[in-house]
Amino acid sequence: MFMIKPRTILTIVSLVVITIIFGTMYISQQQLLRISANSPQIQLAQDTAAELNSGTSPASLTKNRIDIGNSLAPFVIIYSRSGQLVSGNGYLNGKIPTVPIGVLQHSNGKDYSFVTWQPQDNVRIASVSVSANNYYVLAGRSLKEVEKQENSQLQFAMFGWIVSVVVIIFGNFVGKFFRFKTPKK
Predict the structure, then answer these.
(1) CA–CA separation, 132 vs 79, rounded Å?
(2) Domain 38-142 CATH assignment equals 3.30.450
(3) How far is Cα 29 from Cα 45, in angstroms, rounded to an integer?
(4) What are the DSSP E strand ranges found in the chain?
(5) Phi then psi dihedrals of residue 117, to 5 deg
(6) Which of 5, 85, 149, 185 sits 20 to 30 Å CA-CA off 75?
(7) Are 69 and 120 in contact (CB under 8 A)?
(8) pLDDT string in tens for the chain (185-residue length)
């Protein structure tokens, strides 16, 4: 019959626990970074919707032209309630891109809705949509910097995990050569 030594069981359990701890730390940090990437767009979309609801024309709210493929600046795109483009200042390849109507409709009855939008390869946008009286407002900005921070967090977590695994395995190895006896009372 195959017997597993208590030290081996302890080593395996320690490795599993360390993996869970570092995995949870990374996922928590990654989610915090990604969700916080929506904060400026929430304000921008809600403020734009409030302006639209007060009668301001859509074109007057989207004056600056922003290349969303290269810029980190936030942008706004305004759609009709049927999902047709009305106005916007976010351009990709010379055109204002459109999102599926379902992305916009998901904001109905809510303060806002957010989704990661990838209008083309290598362009990932943290977007927030808000429902206005006669419009949908989508505000977005590039995730380039957030994704760099996520990768950095992953590298830190992997480094910590590897060091912890090495320490556990080294401790197990050293423990095989030294027998610690508890003193008798």
Answers:
(1) 10
(2) yes
(3) 25
(4) 66-67, 75-80, 85-88, 90-91, 113-120, 123-131, 135-142
(5) -115, 130
(6) 149
(7) yes
(8) 678 777 788 889 999 999 999 999 999 999 998 888 898 999 999 999 999 999 999 989 988 899 999 999 999 999 999 999 999 999 999 999 999 999 999 999 889 999 999 999 999 999 999 999 999 999 999 999 999 999 999 999 999 999 999 999 888 877 777 766 666 66
